[in-house]
Amino acid sequence: MNREEISKIAHTHHSIKSPLDDESVRRLLERGTPRGDERILDLGCGGGEWLLRALAMHPRLRAEGVDISEGDLAQAERTADRQGVRERLVLHRQEAAAFASPYAYDLVLSVGAAHAFGGLLPTLAAARKHLAPGGHVLIGEGFWDRDPSGEAVEMLGEFADLATTVERVEADGWTPVDGHVSSRGELDDYEWSCWGSLSTWALDHPADPDSAQALATAATRRSEWLRAYRDTWGFVTLILRRTSD
Ligand SMILES: C[S@@+](CC[C@H](N)C(=O)[O-])C[C@H]1O[C@@H](n2cnc3c(N)ncnc32)[C@H](O)[C@@H]1O
């Protein structure tokens, strides 16, 4: 079972692949699409869940998503068909950093995909290239809520604390106009859901050759979360505008 297959099963009950609940996603999308007829772009869209929710909220909105995962994009397409929004959604299978478009976008999203650009500020630089004047960026990124162990840094990568994260964004020429720090409940729900779904799949498919590996992976990832980073890692989603264009 490869990483993509594990991720697909792990997100069975948490279609947003980031630690935010449905109400937080709705509120952030509402803030990022004040008119309702925006053209929006998601860099690292996964199964397109942020885009699909924005399309459902606003019948005149148009959306585009970029991701390298064929399986995730196929899933986005199927859901869009089912929800009757397919004609307003365009999907691109390619490296997000290489995406080019004739359009400028009123909202550029990138949630949990900063590694595709080499970090938070490079992600903002990429988003800026696609941003219409006066537009919003919605970006979700991890931060250290407390000093992490070396093991946690090795596992999740280099992050700053929340204040430093926001200061770096401001120093880069952006003003936060809203934001959301995932609650302990949202962070916990995400991890329980991912590793619980993978465990459930393994228990329901005992004869599958991947069953034992799936169960072991879920146990390892759950234990890594509980032991190495549950008490130190956080996730912030910011809505940004250029401070001056
Ligand atoms: C944690 S998931 C987040 C998905 C989505 N933004 C969400 O919140 O539901 C990260 C996504 O980034 C995508 N990704 C990773 N590297 C990428 C790259 N170089 N170009 C485009 N997408 C990439 C992955 O395929 C995955 O779908």
Automatic annotation (TrEMBL):
Record keywords, A-Z: Methyltransferase, Transferase
Domain Methyltransferase type: 41-137
PANTHER family: METHYLTRANSFERASE, SAM-DEPENDENT METHYLTRANSFERASE
GO molecular function annotations of the record: methyltransferase activity
InterPro entries named in the record: Methyltransf_12, SAM-dependent_MTases_sf
SUPFAM superfamilies: S-adenosyl-L-methionine-dependent methyltransferases (SSF53335)
Species per Swiss-Prot/TrEMBL record: Streptomyces beijiangensis
Protein name as annotated: Class I SAM-dependent methyltransferase
Biological classification of the source: Bacteria, Bacillati, Actinomycetota, Actinomycetes, Kitasatosporales
Cross-referenced Pfam families: Methyltransf_12 (PF08242)
GO biological process: methylation
